[in-house]
Amino acid sequence: MARDNNKEKIIEVFSGTLWESEMVKSLLKDAEVESYLKNSNLNTYIYEPIQAAGVKVMILSSDYEKAKEIIDAYFRNMKSDAGSEELE
User: Which of 42, 59, 60, 84 has an alpha carbon within 20 to 30 A of 7's alpha carbon?
Assistant: First the structure.
């Protein structure tokens, strides 16, 4: 059943650096969740892109639960990987 995207609300699901936001957008694309970046052009002029924050990942509100699950799992895995590297 097709969605009527014209009536759906667009919401922010994540905000971070340009690098983090691009990663989240890529993960969502792999899961077939449409998204786009907001404020990404502002960060192209900042000298240190790792410290540039405020890039928002925007999605349709109907995709929120799926997207949030994907994002939360990604950051949980990042934290657990970082913890295991410290033990080595």
Answer: 42
Tokens linked to 54: 């405020």
Calculate the alpha carbon distances from 38 to 11, 43, 77 in Å.
11, 10, 25
Q: Is the pTM of this model over 0.85?
A: no
Per-residue pLDDT of the chain (88 residues; tens, 9 = 90+): 455 556 889 999 999 988 899 999 999 999 999 999 998 765 555 555 555 578 899 999 999 999 999 999 999 998 887 666 554 5
Q: Report how far residue 21's alpha carbon sits from residue 52's, in angstroms, rounded to the nearest whole number.
A: 11
Domains and CATH numbers, the chain: 10-87 (3.30.70)
CB 21 within 8 A of CB 14: yes
C-alpha 15/C-alpha 53 separation (Å) is: 8
